[in-house]
Specification:
This protein is an alpha+beta fold. Helices cover 25% and strands 28% of the residues. The strands form 7 sheets. The protein has a 6-stranded antiparallel sheet. Strand 20 and strand 21 form a beta hairpin. Helix 2 crosses helix 5 (143-156).
Length: 491
């Protein structure tokens, strides 16, 4: 086990969330800690190669194995502070041949000329009941080879993110006897994590003098007490892409085509970067045949299920199988990060280009993945299920029976289906969701889902099931994606 203890020496964490400079980030995300270690390594001249190897090892640790323990915190009031911008270069090479305006901008570094102060905000969190945040990885194979280097980096790490956040970092192999509560204490949240290639990205950004892009985020959901019925899909490792403009977002009923376009873009990004394209990402084995193992699923995040929902597609969730290998997940995340850093564009010919951006902490309710990953007895389809087979009217097998088998196929235990109620039909039970007919028409010729029977479903399990819940033959392209809804009265 690898344990990193980060003590906030002043009892304050100054850290702005990447997507909103007015919002504080709490707890400090693991990628922020990783960047602090990288900064400690980069201050050395020359940088230690053994410490570089330790950082490269640290970025490969499996994301699903990470646990974060942090005390609750309150946000400090955010106010504008007027500060001068970073100093311009004033070396001979920088001023040679510069225009008068450029020279003026450079001499403004002199205190008497500093009248160009700009408003800045410094959101901060004040932890309550403790100053230590703990990060632990149980599967830390190879720690012995890197422990010494990590300890040296920890000793050289004096601040976290902002220089106002003074810290002490300790490397250990066991959890401290007194732990704050596991984060998130209730509900869910997202954490930005390092991943293979992150060190290289940070070095490239530094060489260019650019601010590094935020790392990808995965869902972090604390396990429930007792036995929990889960599907084969992971509620922790969910990446959210949000609508970032360009053309009008594609229609929700056309989502299977959108999912294929994003899948192809990720594969192309991975191939161009030399990243292995595993069946987890492609959905195909080495022979090019569809793999029988669970793989990356693309799900629509849309304005559905609210009283006045209009069915607008607002983003895409990338959902990994629960038991996929750490190496394959890391390669997939590298492809996701590369696609996002390349502009996040999906091209739809004459219809235009739709832009997507990674949303590390969605503040739009329809993008909140907890709607689809929490425990619930009641589930409703956002897009209809593409049934694995045609119901046989004369064989005693109807659509609910086929849907029940689809639930078993994704890991829902039989105990949750004993006494379950399943209703099937052409119309959705969610406001804003499209009916079967437009979805069927939008499936292009040549698609493996073209011609399959489609049906919406309302499922009431006998016991709560934790999502994500994706059912049927088209579950990896968003068909059969289900939303958890409030339980019916009396259940």
């Amino acid at each position: 086990m690898l344990v990193l203890e980060v003590e906030l020496l002043t009892g304050v964490s100054v850290a702005a969330a990447p997507q909103d400079r007015q919002t504080v980030e709490w707890p400090p995300h693991p990628d922020r800690v990783f960047q602090a270690l990288v900064a400690a390594w980069g201050r050395q001249e020359p940088p230690d190669p053994g410490e570089r190897e330790a950082l490269e090892w640290l970025e490969t640790l499996p994301p699903h194995d990470l646990r974060v323990y942090a005390p609750p915190a309150r946000s400090r009031t955010v106010v504008d502070v007027f500060v001068p911008p970073n100093d311009a270069a004033t070396t001979e090479a920088a001023v040679r041949g510069a225009s008068a305006d450029q020279l003026y901008q450079r001499v403004r570094v002199i205190p008497e000329f500093r009248k160009n102060r700009q408003p800045r905000t410094f959101p901060a969190a004040v932890p309550l009941g403790g100053r230590v945040v703990v990060y632990s990885w149980t599967e830390a194979s190879g720690l012995d080879a890197h422990r010494g280097a990590l300890e040296r980096l920890a000793r050289e790490t004096t601040y976290l993110g902002h220089s106002h956040t003074l810290v002490r970092v300790h490397v250990g192999e066991t959890l401290p006897t007194t732990l704050p509560e596991e984060w998130p204490a209730q509900g869910g949240g997202e954490l930005r994590l390092p991943y293979p290639g992150r060190l290289s990205e940070l070095r490239t950004a530094w060489a260019r003098g650019a601010r590094p892009l935020p790392s990808t985020a995965v869902n972090a959901v604390r396990a429930s007490a007792g036995d929990t019925f889960r599907t084969c899909f992971s509620s922790r490792d969910v990446v959210v892409f949000a609508d970032a403009g360009g053309c009008v977002p594609p229609a929700l009923e056309a989502f299977p085509t959108v999912a294929k376009r994003l899948r192809d873009a990720l594969i192309r990004t991975a191939s161009d970067a030399g990243i292995p394209v595993s069946p987890l990402l492609s959905g195909h084995d080495e022979r090019g045949e569809p793999t029988k193992e669970p793989h990356l699923a693309f799900a629509p995040l849309a304005d559905v299920g609210w009283a006045y929902s209009a069915g607008r597609l607002m983003g895409i969730a990338l959902i990994w199988p629960r038991d996929s290998s750490s190496d394959d997940r890391r390669d997939s995340l590298r492809a996701v990060a590369g696609f996002a850093m390349g502009g996040g564009r999906l091209h739809f010919g004459s219809l235009g280009t739709w832009k997507l951006t990674l949303d590390v902490s969605p503040d739009v309710a329809s993008l909140e993945t907890r709607r689809y990953s929490r425990e619930s007895r009641e589930w409703r389809t956002v897009l209809p299920i593409a049934l694995d087979r045609h119901p046989k009217a004369h064989g005693g097998e109807d659509a609910p029976s086929v849907i029940a088998q689809a639930c078993l196929n994704v890991g829902v235990p039989e105990a949750a289906l004993e006494g379950a109620e399943i209703e099937a039909g052409p119309y959705p039970a969610l406001q804003g969701a499209p009916s079967v007919r437009p979805v069927g028409r939008a499936i292009p010729a040549g698609s493996p889902y073209r011609g399959r029977p489609l049906t919406h479903a309302a499922i009431s399990f006998a016991r709560p099931v934790e999502g994500p819940l994706l059912l049927g033959a088209g579950r990896f392209r968003g068909l059969g994606f289900c939303l958890a809804v409030p339980e019916a009265p009396g259940r």
